[in-house]
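Aim 2 progress update. The chain analyzed this quarter is reproduced below.
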Amino acid sequence: MKSFLRELTLTFVLALTLFFLLQATVQNFYIDGTSMEPSFQDEQRLLVSKVAYYLHEPERGDVLVFRPPQNEQKDYIKRLIALPGDTVEVKKETVYVNDSPLEEPYIKSPPRYTVEKQKIPESSYFVLGDNRNNSNDSHKGWVVPRQNIVGKAWLSIWPPGKWGLIPAYPTMESLASALIN
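Predicted structure tokens:
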């Protein structure tokens, strides 16, 4: 009986440890709305890596989960477009980062709005939904402070037809590097 109780206690402690470890490193995220179509659908479920940005800085093209500055009670999901110190502008249905047009194979349709050229403040990020014309995002005049980032969208877990890793899109830097080499 002692052996059984010891094994039961050990199993319980191990399960509790794994539970808290997972809670600290991964978060379940539910897509609510169409702002990220066609990349993500309403009611799709994702796992978010909460440790990714402890290992490296966010990169252009990443899909972020964050608390927007105007409503820190609800998490949003958007694509990272411009980094701290970058300039960003939207004109003639094209997003420009550091005066270069951004290749965006993931968007639903080109933006039908303009954003005046602006420099992104230090420790802040400019984000846009993939459904450019139906998204509450940085084109509305706000940026995401670094401390509001929850994590990086990592894995789609529902529905079964969407299972898999979240695709990474090449950044301008990686494209420039590939052209040089």
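The domain at 27-170 is CATH 2.10.109.10 (Umud Fragment, subunit A). The helical segments are 2-25, 52-55, 172-180. These observations will guide the mutagenesis experiments scheduled for the next reporting period.
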